[in-house]
Design brief:
- Belongs to the ATP phosphoribosyltransferase family.
- By secondary structure, the chain is α/β, with parallel strands linked by helices.
- The chain folds into three domains: 2-100 and 202-212, 3-Layer(aba) Sandwich (D-Maltodextrin-Binding Protein, domain 2), CATH 3.40.190.10; 102-201, D-Maltodextrin-Binding Protein, domain 2; 233-299, Alpha-Beta Plaits.
- Helices cover 30% and strands 30% of the residues.
- The chain contains ten helices and 15 strands.
- The chain has helices at 2-6, 23-32, 63-69, 79-85, 130-144, 147-151, 185-189, 214-232, 245-251, 280-289, and strands at 12-17, 45-47, 53-58, 74-78, 91-96, 102-109, 124-127, 157-160, 176-181, 192-201, 203-208, 233-241, 259-262, 268-276, 293-299.
- The strands form three sheets. It has a six-stranded mixed β-sheet.
- A hairpin with a 5-residue loop joins strand 13 (259-262) and strand 14 (268-276).
- The structure holds adenosine-5'-triphosphate (ATP), 1-O-pyrophosphono-5-O-phosphono-alpha-D-ribofuranose and magnesium ion.
- The site of adenosine-5'-triphosphate (ATP) has 16 residues, from helix 4.
């Protein structure tokens, strides 16, 4: 341990979620960006071999605080965690990473629960997001509690639990809960449904306002951007008769312009263009309809676009 700590000075410190939903995808981003490291068993610090960077494995919840106030320069966490930490002003959100997408929702029992969020004012709400939920219900209290209730000191009670929040209504701890929803399976299984959404979130790359090595931050950011772009796009290749080229270009305009190369047969050209992965099937259908042949789709490992 001490040998690693002695090597930390002069290294950019980069915080990575040590477990949970963001862990695996954060590691695969580091791999795509070619940051090579070996993490010793149980050790939360790993030196990057090919850059003056040290990775620090921390709970996603704590990462905004470290980036805002500690010596950590860069970090991966969720937008929800940044909002909950209240550190928004002290850090820069550099990049949305496109994974860890979820919504923070107010949920109530399907049977016998409130039908609208305002029916929860003055009641008990269970959550792990104390600060966001406190602020949210403070506003609802101001709006929906009667003057008599306010004078009697009635307030919505926010109760903190650290996980398995969806169990709280069944176990009698709350009248409603606030927790993250992605597929909605956990919520549904617990017999809950949403009555409002507080925020939408995804994983982000965050940076201290005064990072120790700005040029290295920029380099890592563009590498990560490249990995994310590569996941969004595929390269399409096809042959088309010149007479249909104009229509073809409309279907695959590329990010700047498609690359067009002549074929031996002068009536035909080959077209190469970047297309968005989520539109690829529709694009192939349209190309086929205008007579494109030999349509090939290539995955991209990495790119700078
Ligand atoms: N179901 C989900 N779908 C997508 N993203 C999620 C989901 N749950 C959490 N996240 C995102 O991941 C972040 C970390 O949450 P997660 O629950 O994975 O961490 P953890 O609480 O440290 O781990 P664990 O729950 O395994 O103890 C959240 O702040 C949120 O941004
Ligand atoms: O909408 P879904 O796809 O079902 O995902 C939502 C669930 O995922 C997270 O829980 P996690 O697995 O991290 O467990 P935890 O409650 O113990 O933190 C979140 O707290 C929800 O419970
Ligand atoms: Mg969790």
């Amino acid at each position: 341990m001490t040998d690693i700590i002695n090597k930390l000075s002069d290294r950019l410190l980069f915080a990575i979620p040590k477990k949970g939903r963001l862990h695996e995808q954060s590691l695969s981003l580091l791999k795509g960006a070619d940051l090579n490291f070996h993490r010793r068993n149980r050790l939360d610090i790993a030196l990057v071999q090919n850059f003056p960077i040290a990775l620090v494995f921390l709970p996603a919840t704590d990462i905004p605080k470290y980036v805002a106030e500690g010596n950590i320069d860069l970090g991966i966490t969720g937008q929800d965690e940044v909002a909950e930490s209240g550190a928004n002003d002290k850090i820069d959100e550099i990049l949305e990473l496109g994974f860890g997408k979820c919504e923070l929702q107010v949920q109530v029992p399907v049977v016998g629960g409130a039908t609208k969020v305002e029916e929860l004012v003055g009641k008990r709400i269970v959550t792990s997001f104390r600060s966001l939920v406190g602020k949210y219900f403070d506003e609802l209290d101001k709006k929906y509690l009667t003057e008599e209730q306010k004078q009697a000191g009635v307030k919505t009670k926010i109760k903190y639990v650290s996980g398995s929040v969806e169990a709280a209504c069944t176990l009698g701890l709350g009248d409603g809960i606030v927790d993250l929803v992605e597929s909605g399976k956990t919520m549904k299984t617990a017999g809950l449904h949403p009555v409002s959404t507080i925020i939408s979130s995804q994983a982000i790359l965050i940076c201290n306002k005064n990072p120790s090595n700005l040029s290295l931050v920029s380099k890592i950011t563009s590498r990560i951007k490249g990995v994310i772009a590569a996941q969004k796009y595929v390269l399409v290749n096809y042959n088309i008769q010149r007479i249909h080229l104009e229509e073809a270009i409309k279907i695959t305009p590329g990010r700047r312009a498609p690359a067009i190369s002549p074929l031996e047969d002068n009536n035909w050209v080959e077209v190469q263009s970047l297309v968005s992965k989520c539109e690829v099937a529709e694009i192939m259908d349209k190309l086929e309809e205008i007579g494109a042949k030999d349509i090939l789709i290539h995955e991209i490992d990495n790119c700078r676009v």
